[in-house]
Amino acid sequence: MSVAWTIARRELRGGLKGFRVFLACLALGIAAIAAVGSVREAISDGLSREGARILGGDASVEFTYRFAEDAERAALEDLGRVSEIVEFRSMAVVGQGDDTRRGLTEIKGVDDAYPLYGSVVLDPAMPLDEALAPGEVPGAAMDRVLIDRLGLSVGDEFRLGTKTFRLSAAIETEPDSAGGGFGLGPRTLLRTEALDGAGLLTEGSLFETEYRLALPPETDLDRAEARLDAALPEAGYRWRDRRNGAPGVQRFVDRLSSFLVLVGLAGLAVGGVGVASAVRAHMVEKTATIATLKTLGASGGTIFAIYALQIAVLTGLGLLIGLVLGAGLPLLFAPVIADRLPVPANIGIYWRPLAEAALYGTLAAALFTLWPLAKAQGIRAASLFRATGGMPAGLPRPAFIAASAVLLALLVGAAAALSGLPQLSLYAAAGLAAAFAALVGVAALARLLGRSLSRKRAVRGHPALRLALGAVGGPGGEATAVVLSLGLGLTVLAAVGQIDTNLRGAIARDLPDVAPSYFMVDIQPAQIDGFRERLDTDPGVEKVRTAPMLRGIITEINGQDATEVAGEHWVLRGDRGVTYSDRPPEDTVITAGEWWPPDYQGENQISFAAEEAEELGLSLGDRLTLNILGRDIEGEITSFREVDFSTAGIGFVLAMNPGALRGAPHTFISTIYAEPDAEAAILRDLADAYPNITAIRVRDAIDRVTDILAGIAAAVTYGAGATLVTGGVVLLGAAAAGTRARVYEASVLKTLGAGRPLILRSFALRWAMLGLAAGIVAVAAGGVAGWAVSRFVMETDFVFSTGSALLIVGGGVLGTLLAGLSFAWPPLSARPAQVLRGQE
C-alpha cells in the first residue's frame, strides 16, 4: 500500500483533467440530498424551538362537540394558566336580498387570555382587545382574502348566523396559525362570548374546543399529562404539547422530504453512470502507465490499489464539494425558503443530513467505480504494448461481483432505513434497476439496429444517415453512455409528469361527475324535515343525501389502547365521524358479516369500513370503545362494508345501530347534487331559511387541495429536474470524451471528399437517434411508474398522458442534439493532414 500510495499521489499531481464529470456528478447528487435533508432538519428544529408559539401554549387539550365541564376546567387550571379557544366553520354574510354575498370562514372564538405566546398582528395596528371589543355590535378581525372576497372595508358590518359583527381589522399574522392544520376557509377571529345569540354553538353542532396551557418553566410535560390522565380518566380529550406543536405539518414535511431524498438518490444513480464512465475512460487513458508498471512487476492487486486510492481521494473531494453546496444552498436561499414555508424554519448547518448524504455518496461512488477498477487490474501488459487498447472483455472476478452486490444492498438498505419510507425505497430501487436494465438493453439494440440498417440498400443514397447509423452501431460509440445518462434522468421526470397529470386529471375529470355541489353541516334535528322538503321540491336539485353525524375517538380495541394495538393509523389520530342507521345506506356493499335488523334493540353493533379495517387488523367480533362527548360507548364489529371517500360524498368509517347512540346530541349532514346554474339560488334559499347551516362548496375545497398538490408536484419536479441536470452533465461528459474519436472520423471523411455540412448532419442524426431511444424508454418506464403509483398508491384510474410523453421524447432528442453539437466544432475544424499524420 505504501508503494501504491506513492504512485497514486504522484499521478494526482497531474491535476483533475478527465475527472470533472466525476466530481460534478458526485457533488450534484450529494448536494441535492444534503440540501433537502438540511431544509427538513431546519423545519423540524423550527417546529421544536417554536413549538409553544405554534401550538399556542406549552400544552393543549382538545374536546369535541363540547366545552370543558367545571371539574375538567379546574383540573386544567391546576397545571397552569389556561386559555379557551373554540373553532368551527360557518358562513359570513354581507348585504341583503339580491346583493347578498356569502363566504365560508373558519371561526376562532378566543378569551381574554389569548394568545398565551406570541401576538396577533392586525391592520390597522391595534391591540387585540380593542379589535374584539364587545358591545351592541361586537368587533371581529378577518383574513384579508375573506375581506376582499366579501367586498368589506374596516368598519363594515357582516353576519354570522343570526348575529351582526363589525369588521375592526385585517389579520396580518396569527401566532398559532401553523398548528391548526388544513382549513377550508379563511379565518374570522372574535370573542367566544360574542357568539351568544348567533345560533351557531347549539347542542350537537360541529365545533371543537381547545384549552391551551402556559405551564411553569420547570414542568415535566410527561408528568403533567399523567396528572391530567389521573384526574380525568374518562374525559375523552386529546393532548398535544410543544414537543409536537404541528404534527400534521411535521408528518407532511417528513414524507415529502423523504420522497425528495429518494428522487435525489435517483439523481445519484444517474450520476453514477457518469462516475463509472469517467473512471473507465481514465483507466483506458492510463493503459501505457499500467503496462509499464506490470512490466516492472506490479501485480493486479497493486494496480487496483493505486487507482482505488486515486478514486478515494477524488471521492473525498467530490463529497466535500457536495456537502459544502448542500449545506450552503439553504443558507444562501434562507429568505426565500422562509417566505414560502407556513412554519418557522431555523436554517442552519445540521450534521445528520450531511452525514446521510455523505454515506449515500460514498456507497454510490464505491459501487460505480468498483467495476471498472476491477476490470482494469485484469489488463495484460502485452496487449497494451500491442496498442489494442480498451478494457478487457467479460466480467470481473467473482469477488468483485459479490462486493458490488454488497455495496448495492447497503445503498438500498440505507435508503430504506434512513428515508422513513422503506417500502417505497425498495420499490424505487427495483424501478431504477429495471429502468437501468431496459436502457442498457435499448442501447445494445440501438447499436445492433444501427449496424444492420447502415448496410441496407435503402440508405445508400443518404450518406449522412448511413454514417450516423454506422457510428451508432460501431465499436467504441457513445450509445450506452448517452442512453443511460439521459434515459435515467428522463425516466424520473416522465414518472413525475405522469403521476402529476393523472392526479390533476382525476380531480378535474372524475370528481365533477361524482362530487356533490355542496356539503352541508350543522343541520339541527328540528330542521332536517324542512330542509329535505325545500330540496325535494326544487327542480334544480338532482339528488340529496342526508345522515345523522356525531364525532368520536376510537380509544380501545378489544380492551387495549387503540394506538398500541394498531399504531398511528389516520383513523386513530383524531376524532372520526360516526353515524347510525336502521338499514344500510343506498348502494352500500357489505363485504363481510351482516347489518343489524330494523328496530334492533340488542347490544351495540358496529359496521366498519372494510379497507380501513384490514389496515388496522380488525376482524368480525372485535370490540371497539368510542369516546363520544366524554362518554365511552362500546360495540362489537358485526359487518364490514365498502366506503368510497374519493367521491367527496357522505362516507363514514363507523356506523352503529340507532340504539347505541340514543339520546346523544347530534346534527345532520347533507350532500346536495345540483345543476351548476342552480347552485347559487339553492344556497340563497337555504341560507335565508337556516342561517346556522354551513355550506361548503365542494369545488372550492377541491381547488384548495389542488393548490396544495400543485406545490407538492412543483417540489418533486424540481427534484427530478436536478436529476436531469446530473444526466446532462453525464451527457456532456460523454460528448466531450468522444471528441478525439470524432476528430479522427471527420478527418477521414474530409479526406474522402465529405464536406462540413454532411459531417455535421451525420453527427446531428446520430445524437438525435440516441436521444430518441432514451426518450422512448423513459416514456415507457415513466408510464409504468405512473400507472403503479396511480393504481396502488393513489387508487385512481390511470390515463396515459400523451402530451407529457411527447415533451419527454422531444426533450431527449433536443438534449442530446445540444450536447453533441456543443462539441462539434473541433471535428469540423480539424485539418486532416495534421490529424492523420499524428496517427502514424
TrEMBL record:
Keywords: Cell membrane, Membrane, Transmembrane, Transmembrane helix. The chain crosses the membrane at residues 21-39, 259-283, 304-337, 357-374, 395-418, 424-450, 767-788, 800-825. It is found in: Cell membrane. The keyword Cell membrane applies. It is a multi-pass membrane protein. Residues 24-230 form the MacB-like periplasmic core domain. GO terms for cellular component: plasma membrane. Residues 263-376, 722-825 form the ABC3 transporter permease C-terminal domain. PANTHER family: INNER MEMBRANE PROTEIN (PTHR30287:SF1), MEMBRANE COMPONENT OF PREDICTED ABC SUPERFAMILY METABOLITE UPTAKE TRANSPORTER (PTHR30287). This is Putative ABC transport system permease protein. It comes from Palleronia salina.
